[in-house]
Amino acid sequence: MTTEAVDHIRALADTFHVIKAERDTAKLVLDEIEPRYVEAESALFEAIENAGLESVRTTRGLFSLNDLAWPRIEDRDRLLAWAEAEHPDLLTLNLQRLQTPLRAALKEGQELPPGLTYSVTRKIRFTGAK
Q1: Considering only Cβ atoms within 10 Å of each terminal Cβ, which end of the chain, N or C, has fewer?
Q2: C-alpha–C-alpha distance, residues 51 and 44, integer Å
């Protein structure tokens, strides 16, 4: 490898390091702001709800209540029985759950399950100097 190529790679690494530091600083600022954001959002939500409204418009825009429900499984067997009877489409394969056996197969050089393929996201992992 030529000196120019090595210098180019070092310059790219330096650029990456600067941008990573900027991102890390932005995350710290966000972490500082997040509790205030959550508190302000909760106060606004409660005020709108307590007023019997679904939304409020200001000069900044429309602020609407949006209740979101996220599932939590309490009894897997009962839920599976219900899904088999009422919604068999819920029993389809879940890509997120397939990550563990896929990565294990790739790491151990095993054959992938039939019908399964994968894509790769390429990232740079950086560990600061000690």
Answers
A1: C
A2: 11
